[in-house]
# Entry
Amino acid sequence: MKTSNRLMLACEGVMTKKVRTFMLGIGVSVGTAALIFLVSLIFGAKAYVDEKVGGIRENLLNVGIKPPPPHNPQPLDDSAYRQLLQIKGETGEVVDVYRELPIAPRPYIKVKNQPANNWLKVVSVDEGLYQNNPDNPIPDFKYRHVEPVDESEITFPEADETEATEEEKDTNFIPVIVPNVFVEALTSFAGDERKSLKQFFDILQGQEPFYVLVQGKGYRCKVVAVDNTVSSWSIAVPFRYGEEWNRHQGEQFPDYKWPNYDRFVVEATDIKHLDDIKEKIAAAGYQPQPTEAQEIGIAVSRGAMYLFLLAVTFCLVIALVSAIGIFNGLSISIMEQAPRIGILRSVGATRTDISSIYLFEAAIIGIVGGIIGLVAAHLLMWGSDIALKDFLSDVTNIRDIQTLFVWSLPEAFYIRTGAVGLGVITSLLAGVGPAYRASCLNPAVVLREG
# Structure
């Protein structure tokens, strides 16, 4: 029997029991819709978090002090820096080492119409960490000499800018990088009060200057970039400012205990060598660990994977229930169509032909259920997208969410194809038993008992 004939007979069998076919397909559609909805939500939310954290540079390592004894922690000083540079020379992997130096005592920040405060930490970072980043270079983040003014002479806007050229306005500031986490936290906190905090958003976008106060001197600063390598609740300036400011404060406080480096950032040119570099750093007595952005990314990825496995498990349970229904439905259908099977066998249809017809029926049920589930999932996602965005904007003040579901290709295509494919496979597996039973019917017996 030709395949087209088998398919035609399968379609005829399905159409004779339209209600039963529809009801059996509903079980498949529930599993398909649930899988599409849950997986799209999980990975859509993950994509949103990744976007907010920024482009995570996976080839970076933070090098910090090891925990207390028995690890015998070593200070992060110049000798440690030279030691890491020596590791760089010994390895076959090309790496670079960058320093982060805290400013101490902690400087104050002066913002227009606000009292000076030191709740933000100020650190200085090697410029090469950003200038050598091929994915997102920040050419403005480099040392330039800026003349400080006395704290009492700070004005907003600066009087000397009235006759300054555009070039002088663009260069008369210290470049600053702020962390993604800080920007997103402020955005979420602002909510309906965003207008009253417009000044802070202007500062973060580099549209308004502020001052860093060091021993009564104010240094004019502007934000040039947002980057995920900067620790949260801190701002970063080029490294030479940290050296100069600490030296200046050292002259004022000769007995003050000056801090060592906060951390070293090790950058591997090839991420494949990151584990080897970790081992060498640990063997030297230091603690290699992910950057803050990487830790957020790892936590989000791990959570998304756990939720994905939970969603798949839930949908497999639904698939099992629908498979039992398809098995029972096809078994009843075979009992009702036993005379038809006997006639087909008597006119030359083989056992393979009979089993193929009912497997085709199972596949049609799966396809029908998959299509229904696909349509239902999209309707559910469109409605939920609006409701979830309204809920999150009310609860968390986050208002910039475009969507919490995966809609863009190719991810959306894989999710939907996988869900529909799971429904079809479930139907086929459920139809194997009834199809085999149909092929084993004795034509003489079923015709006689007709």
Summary: Residues 157 and 174 are 16 Å apart (CA to CA).
